[in-house]
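tmp note - Alpha-(1-6)-fucosyltransferase
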Amino acid sequence: NHASNSENLVSYNQNPSENFESLRRKIYDDIKDLSYFVNNQLLKLKRDSSLEPKISFIENNFHDRINLLLVEMYNLSTSDSLGDWRKLEADSLALKIQREFYELQNPSDCDKQKKLVCDLNKSCGFGCQMHHVMYCFITSYFLNRTLLLDSSGWRYNPNGYEAYFKPLSEKCTKISNYGVGWDGNRFETADVIHVPIIDEITTKPEFFPLTIPKKYQTSLSSFHGDPFVWWAGQILAFLMRFNGKFSKTVEEKIKSSGFRTPCVGVHVRRTDKVGTEASYHALSEYMKHVKEFFDFYDLKTSTKNMRTVYLATDDLSVLKEARENYRDYRFISDEINAETASLNKRYSPESAQGVILDIHFLSQCDFLVCTLSSQVCRMAYEIQQTRFPDGSWRFKSLDDVYYFGGQLRHNVIAVQEHIPKPGLGEIELK
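out:
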């Protein structure tokens, strides 16, 4: 039935308009915004101990009603074969884009093809380095150049990028020269260019993040709530294709860990970010949103599901706290990954393997709770998009919104005017 429904959608052109999908997603976002506002106000009222019992009653009932609304919105999104149509659109576009990436990286004549050289060894952690490679690939794509990745002397592994991943090209594998330095000029004519880190480009070309290719804009915007995140996921899916040896490592980890879905991925970053790039967040803050997702999921499936959490962290005490304080949940985690993520062991082959495995398993979860200030969190969210036609809603960040370091200006439009009230810390919107 599903196949015939999909065929009917294509044959009779019954796919929804972009406006319909945009409005449906906006209603979902508005419901979430309403719940954030009401819950925040109730939290303030609970400080009055005499009101606490009544507020808790309202809070619990409001939570149940919001979940019911969200389930109804989800059912609307898949009704009348809309779910089949969305999957068909996403799968078709993904296939087309992956073929395009492969052809760009494997030209018919490598000697004649213009190239772009990218140095993997940016002075930062794994997630930051992978987003650097993504920026290099985006640049090579829009300039129609084959990307050559220099991973010699990689701080994580002396064997380089291919210790874990397949080569980016089967034909163009040697870097004969670094070419000329690139300054952001999209009309550069040199045969080989070498790109600096994105932070050094002062005049950013219009194809920098959060831009997507114009030719895919209509299709992508029709089925996905955050087109660039889906586009980023496709790029990482190509860049991070596991080689044969590492694929076996991943398969062994799946078996030994007992990984299964439904699952919520939780990433708790503590050691090197707290106090500098991010604030401290207690485990209870993460688990609040884990509970909310499983409450929603149980209602959606009319089943009491096992509450499985994949917990990735660089702090072993978090694993201990989780198992002691949340006994109704099944936690999957790797203590070796947590140990190698600690500061004194971070730049090693074991650490690289640990963070790659964490990102992989987080991306395989149905929902993510993390801090988007973390590159690992953003990578997991990006790769997660390759598993769902529209997974844009499948995360909760405890700090930042989604962004790409070095991105173009990201303007947003106020949907409603707001005059701030004195003393509440509000801003004016027009």
